[in-house]
Amino acid sequence: MERSFKTSLGHCELCSAADVIPFCVVIAAVLVACLVFVRYFSKMALSKQSLTILTVTVTLGQLLSALQALGAIRQLSVKWTEPAKSLMDMLAVLNFDFDVLHMSCVAGADRPVLQFLAQLLAYPFISVSVMLLCFLSRAAGHRIKLDSLLNLNGMLLLAFNLTLTLAVLMPLQCIGNPNGTASVGANP
């Protein structure tokens, strides 16, 4: 059986070699972002931060929360038109919806269990990546305190709170079928 992925219109298309590129680009971007976070947050003394830096940090956190909420709105049964549809598809990655990245081309199968597992393991992957980068920085001679590592991990967990909640609760949402049975709304 040939590998295929679901398009935004719900049709199946065969995978090509180029369909793996978006997934690899996102993984590379996550690792680079983790490196930037580790380098930036390991150097800052939390008790000596200026009000400007704290304001920018809080504003970026609110922006991330707003984008995740917009991605959650994408899950509603609404037929979005362009350009809102393209915007919603781009924001799907923030909600750990890896169908946009053609994950079935990477995994070799389009199984809901694999998608759910990938959603649940996305935050631990990010957290372990941050920890490994901290330990590698420490081995390279940079001074990183355990408090900074824990603060960064807590900030990431707080930032992805809505995404993780949606990932866990979406499979519990059922829709009724005409024959009286019900099926999972995320994968009917």
Describe the structure.
The chain is mainly α. It has a domain at 32-96 and 112-174. 59% of the residues lie in helices and 6% in strands. It is built from seven helices and four strands. The chain has a two-stranded antiparallel ribbon with strand order 1-2. Helix 1 packs parallel to helix 5 (112-139) and helix 5 (112-139) runs antiparallel to helix 6 (146-159). The two termini are 22 Å apart. Keywords: Membrane, Transmembrane, Transmembrane helix. The chain crosses the membrane at residues 20-41, 53-73, 116-137, 149-172.
Number of DSSP strands? 4
Average pLDDT value?
76
Helix content: 55-70%
In terms of per-residue confidence, which ranges show pLDDT below 50 for 5 or more consecutive residues?
A: none
Number of helices: 7
What distance lies between the first and last C-alpha atoms, to the nearest angstrom? 22 Å
Please tell me how large the radius of gyration is.
19 Å
Bin the strand percentage.
Answer: 5-15%
Main sheet?
2 strands, antiparallel
Order of helices and strands: EEHHHHHHHEE
Shape: globular
Structural class: mainly alpha
Strand order of the largest sheet: 1-2
Transmembrane segments: 20-41, 53-73, 116-137, 149-172
Keywords: Membrane, Transmembrane, Transmembrane helix
